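Slide 14.
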Amino acid sequence: MKYAIISDIHANLEALEAVFEDIDKNETIDDVLCLGDIVGYGANPNECIELIKQRCPVSILGNHDAAAVDLLSTQHFNIHAKIAIEWTTKELKPKNKEYLTTLPSKKILDPITLVHSTPYEPNMWYYITSLEEAAFNYQYFDTSACFIGHTHIPVIIVLNKDDEVYVHQGSNYQVSGAERVLINVGSVGQPRDRNPNSSYGIFDTDTMEFSFRRVTYDIEKTQAKMRKIKMPEFLANRLVEGR
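Slide 15: predicted structure.
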């Protein structure tokens, strides 16, 4: 199977449509998998959920998805995220709220594991921001690869046959032998690696090859929608900066 793996759409319809358009150009992709945070920050939560329902046979619950349907308190969210979730909760259609409540926090499709945050206690929404945290999390999944989102920063972290953990410098990687990988596919709707282009990944379970894809989209259109609904200016500005 060859999967396109997306995450952290955050109600950015223009970015999601651009990514699906890019995916559809690759006729060898069998399915699209979503790692969560479909909503939050952006102006099109319902439209993004409906697209994910149509296109993704598997989707994982993200922390913003959980907060939007009262499965998670926003007490630890920053003020901008809280404002966005309050608006999103009021905007969501009942059927889309129901959909979010059905999403799992973890899914295994051997040889891959899918979570939004971390394989260790995925519904606690921890972050992996260091090699130490990555090394700790390897004991909480058994597959060759684990795919995550949450930080919005794409990265490939390898555990090699000598039990050494390191960041692979490059946009492509082939898992071989006893190696295992922990891969953050980045964000479709709000990249934070100083690159404003949408990020997603492609993984082939037959060849065990992974590659990142970056896609441009109409950022100004997304920003205009956000400003029209009076979303915090910080959230609109950060899109063009990729932060």
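Speaker note: The longest strand covers residues 198-204.
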